[in-house]
Amino acid sequence: MAETHTTASLAPAATERPRGGQGENAMAETRLKQIGGLLARQGIFVAFALFMIGFAIFSDRFLSVENIMSVLRAAAIIGVMALGVTVVVIGGNLDLSVGSMLSFSTVMVVDLHDKIGPGAAIGVTLVATLGLGAVNGLLVGVAKLNSLIVTLGMLSAIQGLTLIYSGGKNVDIANQDTTWFKIFGRGYIADIPTPIVIFALAAVVLHVVMAYTPFGRRVYATGGNQTAAVFSGIRRNRVVFATYLISATCVAISAIILGSRVMGSQNNVGQGYELQALAAVILGGTSLLGGAGTIWKTVIGVLILGFIQNGLLLLGFEYYVQWLVTWAVIILAVWLDIAAKRGRLWSPIA
Amino acid sequence: MSDNPLKSAMQWLARNPIWSFILLIFIFFSIANPYFFAIQNFKNILVQTSTIGLIALGMTLVMINGNIDLSVGAVVALAASLCVDIQDWHIFAGWGDWAILPAVLAALAAGTLLGALNGLIVWKTGVDSFIVTLGAMLGVRGLVFVYTKEQSFFASNFAFSDFGSSNIGPLPTLAVLFILCTIVVHFLLSHTVHGRNIYAVGGNRAAAVNAGIRVGPHMLVNFMIVGFFAALAGITLSSQMGAATPNLGTNYELWVITSVVLGGTKLNGGAGDIIGTFGGVLAIGILRNGMNLMQVPAFYVLVILGAILIAVLFLDKQLNRKGKEELRL
Question: Where along chain A do its domains lie?
Answer without folding.
Answer: 1-56+340-350, 60-314
